[in-house]
Known about the structure:
12 strands, two-stranded antiparallel ribbon, 28% helix, 20% strand, 327 residues
Amino acid sequence: MKARVLIAACAAAVMLCGCQSSADTLLNKYSEMDILGSSDVLSLVEPSMAEGFAADLAVVSAADNEASIGDTAISAPAALLMDEGTNAPLYYKNIYEPLAPASLTKLMTALLVLEQGNLDDTITITAEMIDIDNPEAQMAGFQAGDTISVRDMLYWMLIYSGNDTSNALGIYMSGSIEAFAQQMNERAKSLGATHTHFVNACGLDADGHETCAYDLYLMFKACMEYDVFRDAIRQSSYTVYYTNAAGETVSSTFDTTNLYLADYYDPPEGITILGGKTGTTGNAGTCLMVLAEDAGGNTYTALILGCSDKPELYQQMSNLLSIIQKK
């Protein structure tokens, strides 16, 4: 049994060897992969990589660049649409292509906080947490000396995507951004996210900071195991009460960056957006991952990476979600 789990774990590492999709589905499941019977394949992956591996999720051969149900074409650099009820893929494109993920990085930051942090702890903001030398960076606007709960910081990060919120959480967790990035990469590896390398907690552009659509899907699926995460990504706005450096209780209300939840864009008819996470940087373009539901109550995960602007992003996402109506 252990050998079979390890062979499953090798699927991503040997993707370029040309494992093939089965005839009746677009993607194979890790649990159904049997690419090589030889024990030699086990040497390609560290045994620890198999721990917690995504055995029941799906994987596409690197030889298959694009496939879909229906004739919908997506022009975005990378996209993925999964039926969460069956783990069946409805669309994929370039899902192993290394790309800058922008603030979708914060999915991994959230996962580590949910798994290893204490939501009832408080964080005192330091100068290091808010030292972000990028005039275009989204910021919550904390000042050194402010104190806020980990729970509220997590909500602020997932809803408003402030880069200072993710820095604060990373330093709270590991003592420094560098140490937290190492922790992020170790956790990504254990998920089977073999095309991921993070150098910061927030997703601002940096050399070597990259992941891919499929790896982000694995991170999102892991986050969805937590009620707090599912609640946070559904919010259209949120009010946080915290203590400023002068010891005063203050509040801040912030709106979601998800323009479906803000009613700025409409999804296809019959599709409801339950929540999601956005990201935008110069290298990454505009990105969006959403949890959606059809009229029958079936849920789906959809991801678009690398659009040039928000109108294109939401048009591409709506095109992707329209595939649900054709299945």
